[in-house]
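Problem statement: downstream parser choked on a complex file, so we are re-checking the raw output for the s-citryldethia Coenzyme A run. The parser issue turned out to be on our end (a line-ending mismatch), but while we're here, posting the original submission so the record is complete.
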Amino acid sequence: MGDNSAKLNFGGQETDYKVLSGSVGPEVIDIRKLYANTGAFTYDPGFTSTASCESKLTYIDGDQGILLHRGYPIDQLAEQSSFMEVAYLLLRGELPGKSELESFTRTISRHTMLNEQLSTFYRGFRRDAHPMAIMCGVVGALSAFYHDSTDINDPYQRMVASHRLIAKMPTIAAMAYKYSVGQPFVYPRNDLSYTGNFLRMTFSVPAEDYVVDPVIEDAMDKIFILHADHEQNASTSTVRLAGSSGANPFACIAAGIACLWGPAHGGANEAALNMLREIGTVDRIPEYIARAKNKDDPFRLMGFGHRVYKNYDPRAKVMQKTANEVLERLGVKDPVFDVARELEQIALNDPYFVEKKLYPNVDFYSGVILSAIGFPTTMFTVLFALARTVGWVAQWNEMISDPEQKIGRPRQLYTGPTARDYVDVDKR
Ligand code: SDX
């Protein structure tokens, strides 16, 4: 890591700060001594110019539309790898050999069952509860069942908790779906792939045999890969901040799920499909483009824009290709997909979107595929959370073992009332 320095002239004094360089990407100015040196804070709402940590997991170049996981480009991983292999890569740092992958996959398979008492936990929810509400509750509750993997200072317990979280998310997600449609829960099967097992737990019914469709299995696995990790996004930062206090891993992931639910973040896939359905036909697109550009209208094109990507989100490219494949395979003619492609073309040629560098993001096309496979829109963010658990867990492990990590505690610019004395109610 090359070092040089940056000077700051402030309050009549000049102070120096180290500049650190990574293996690729922007340099960082190490301002950890700034408050001690100057008595001032930096001010960066939304952290648009702030690096919160050092990481070796995922690199994004927003201008070039590049996304690497441990150096491997996302389009190569999506086309040639598997979600289990990407999970291993993110957790361990290298692609596994054949026997390493087999043993990792077997370990994950053996953790897919939930403590049976958790199935009664579901019955406390209304049937029409949003599955993300159930996910927040059930994942947080895991810490009540798996005490033997909550000591974050024990590397073995950290590994077991990581495997349990990755393994149990599909079971929890499938059970949330089954509960919402009033069908019986389906137990996991160890003879199926991670993704095939999830599809069977979600869509099979006791009344008939269920055979996993390899094309759907492949598309689902690709979607999981595309959602696995994404640098220090809002929900990953939430997991890291929760973890920095020493909270147990189940509580940290539950916090990440809660943050992901927001429509500006992972909730955008559900919002994007609802928006496309509301637009309905190609001829109504101009009305919505106008609304998206109207400063007085809070409406935004869901699935468009990104804090980091000021070019095409590389995941959206793979997602659009997969949408074509799945709709063709299923013989589905979804008018929503036609609206999505036409909306993209119109937006990418509109000066407003071009000037603000707004491109489709990972959430723009994913809903078209998930809807074609048979998921209700309320399950879309659940699937995002299922896949992102791999990234959250990998980032949490990296944070815990980072010697520089300490509890996250930002400061503020205070603009409230200065000190004043209390006034008794009969004198106000
Ligand atoms: C994800 O961070 C990650 O990595 C997230 C994620 C991941 O994998 O973890 O990639 C997943 O969350 C993808 C993003 C999903 N969200 C959406 O699709 C919701 C719609 N998009 C926006 O809300 C917005 O683009 C954000 C939240 C994604 C990014 O917002 P920023 O970076 O804070 O940018 P901004 O809101 O300041 O927008 C810049 C300008 C603004 O106009 P001005 O005030 O400068 O005039 O662009 C406009 C915005 O009004 N703008 C949009 C728009 N997004 C931004 N205008 C219309 N439609 C949009 N979608």
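For whoever reads this later: The radius of gyration is 23 Å.
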